[in-house]
């Protein structure tokens, strides 16, 4: 299957063709951080994955990864392409589901959506276990982003998903897996660095960096700031907050993310400071469309995911 990338998505290029198989290889490499790990997950050779990505780079006219002895790292262009690739593959999955519905077939494989934040919170090892469980249940899995993931569960493209919350309980059947505060990610020169915690009111008049509007953190942050009587000064948005904050020229800027991700890692010259608030936090949830009947196999997968990903709150 071929996808046409429209002109304007990447600079100084006309429309280009990208094979959806190559997008799958690219996204798996993004998730794994190396060609060899991606190849192992996809039961292909590392050379085959590398060649497909190289062809994709040549077609798009830009490097997608920086190759290092320890693996690969997305370039600025690669970050952009990943965002579009996730949307494209979600659309492809939806198209296939619609084709199956129109043709009257009921043999569509079930699909489990897994968002970027979920992967980081749960960890590579447990995510790999969940992907194996999904495969054993005859289900595929798709990397996604928070709000798109909710849409795909509602329209039936995904049967269930591990995503960021809170979500609307009127629309979704929800199982809470983990819960924690948002946090400020600050340089050691910032006054917040020595604090045990801060409140949302402390963010007034601060220049903020956070995830873009496709992610739950962005909306929790903006709603919380408005509740406390001010508009957040968002200087930049990103999908890789740690890297953006550490390379951002203004050391007074405050990164906003979830403490479940940033709080468990030590960084040179940076620290995650929790934002203490009883209402505006971040959740990891397992969701399905409310009222939708899942098969016994899918219900069993739900139980196994809960056993694998749940942590006592």
TrEMBL record:
One of its GO terms (cellular component) is cytosol. Keywords: DNA-binding, Transcription, Transcription regulation. Coiled coil: none annotated. Residues 18-75 form the HTH lysR-type domain. GO terms for molecular function: DNA binding; DNA-binding transcription factor activity. Belongs to the LysR transcriptional regulatory family. This is Transcriptional regulator, LysR family. It comes from Pseudoflavonifractor capillosus ATCC 29799. The lineage of its organism: Bacteria, Bacillati, Bacillota, Clostridia, Eubacteriales.
